[in-house]
Amino acid sequence: MLKGLSPGAALVLLIAGPGVSIASLLVVGKSLGRKQLLFYLGSIILGSIISGLFVDYFLPREWFTITSLCESAEHCSSHAGLSASWFEITSGIVLVLLLINAFMLKLFKKEENIKENQVVYRIDGMSCNHCKNSVEKALRALDNVEDVEVVLGKKEAVVTGTPDDEIVKKTVEELGFEYIGRR
To answer: pLDDT 10s per residue in the chain (183 long)?
Structure first.
């Protein structure tokens, strides 16, 4: 806006920019389909343009001028420079350290401890809680199975007990999932 952009145009950029990013378009397109994606795009475009026109034509321009917020031109220009306070520098350092920590934890993540009487089976095709519950229920009904826990994110079933692998494979495939094998 300081370079001459109208407040409505700035609002359009703020609304439509994140809404039509490649990541959000891919997620909406995959989860809802192409028809809903077009509806999503149309509503964002139309909504942001209407909001921008409303701001430009119905709200006072003085609300959006930076000079009304500043006591003098020197005050505004002194804060527009590249100087950073100790708080900003410290916050930046803390952020970088937290990002490094998260990266290191992910990089050197230890595998969870599998107990002696547990077997981990890889099962492909599970995508929701219904899938998880049906696999858990079917595997719990097998002989020599004490407990079952399905981890959807890893597409694994942790089975406590000593089930027969062929029976587990048959049970999983009867449910419509792909049995990959033991981990």
So the answer is: 777 788 899 889 988 988 888 888 888 888 888 899 999 999 999 999 999 999 999 988 778 776 544 554 555 555 555 567 888 899 999 999 999 998 888 887 765 667 778 889 999 998 888 889 999 999 999 988 999 999 888 889 999 988 889 999 999 999 999 999 888
What's the predicted TM-score (pTM) here? Answer: 0.42
Structural domains in the chain, sorted by start: 7-79 (no CATH), 118-182 (3.30.70.100)
Query: Six-digit token pair at 164?
Result: 């027969």
Q: Are 128 and 164 in contact (CB under 8 A)?
A: no
Closest residue by Cα to residue 1 from 68, 81, 65, 80: 65
